[in-house]
Sequence to fold (336 residues):
Amino acid sequence: MEEDHVSIRPAVPARWEERHRDAFGCSAWERALHHAWVLTCWRPNPELGGQPDPHLAEQDGLAVASVLYGAAQAHHLLVDDLPLDEAALFATTVLSASLDPPRPRLPAPRHGAVLTDEGLGRVLRALGPHDAGADPPLPPARVGYRTRDLLARPGGHTRPYRDDWSMYVGLAWDGIDQTGGRPGDRAGEVARRAEGIRPPEALRRLAATHPDLRVLATEGRLPRATAGASWLSHAGRLICLSYEVVAAIGQSPLDPGTLPLPVMGAIRAYATAVDSLAAAARDLQGLWRAHAGQRPEPDPARWAEQEIPPSLHAQLRDTERCLAAICAVLLGPASG
Fold:
């Protein structure tokens, strides 16, 4: 019997767990792990001048997850809604091994260790500011907002959790630039199809029945469904269209030379990039479902301002421009 340890783990409220499962399709512990891996593994891309933080290691993720889980449970909050400063306070005042005995265990499934002073320091580092020199600077935030911001920032990665989406957009642009057409610049100039590129028949049929695809190819952006279309609405349309385009190209029997290898490489890279945007959209859809059931119901515009960081708006914009260039190369008028 470990007399110097006292468990502070209460019975997990069923409704608290159900809220996580309803919103995200996973347990609160799994949600805490999701955020913890991002907070501990995120690094600026060394190729862009950043250096990995030598004080954080992947194994610190379990300790951070335990803190997030315990603090969110104590405050009856979704892990996503937990303020980072509350998580840090919980780690400092409840879980530190430097407190007088009895020393509590970490209140999370399958993890009963105590935070040592060294471990506490690493946890606080993970919960503190990331990339303090970032522009715009990272604001004090809730857990979910911070991880969404980190995952959407170009030039960073969370290996082995998730690669940098902007790297795949860049690879897609490299393929577009090699088509020999006039693909335009990456700020949104409409591309033109290179001579000799014959669009797959399935893509032609899709374009004939999908007016948004033609608009995207000729104007460089999707038409707005409504004047005040939300980020989730716009992202959902772009993601669905992206997967339809990739599927149409993939199901077409390609004659030799129909699509140059750079174009095929661009499409494969883009498909990986859009997966990252889709993951962010799924998370936000789940969070909106959870918040929309509250009383009073949140104002959608105010909610988007509080939950969607500028980096995610930029990710949507850059992903849209990349698909527009691909569609223009395949469907636009040939360059002359």
Observations:
- Residues 261-292 form the longest helix (32 residues).
- Residues 22 and 150 are 24 Å apart (CA to CA).
- The two ends are 82 Å apart (CA to CA).
- The chain has two domains: 5-157, 165-331.
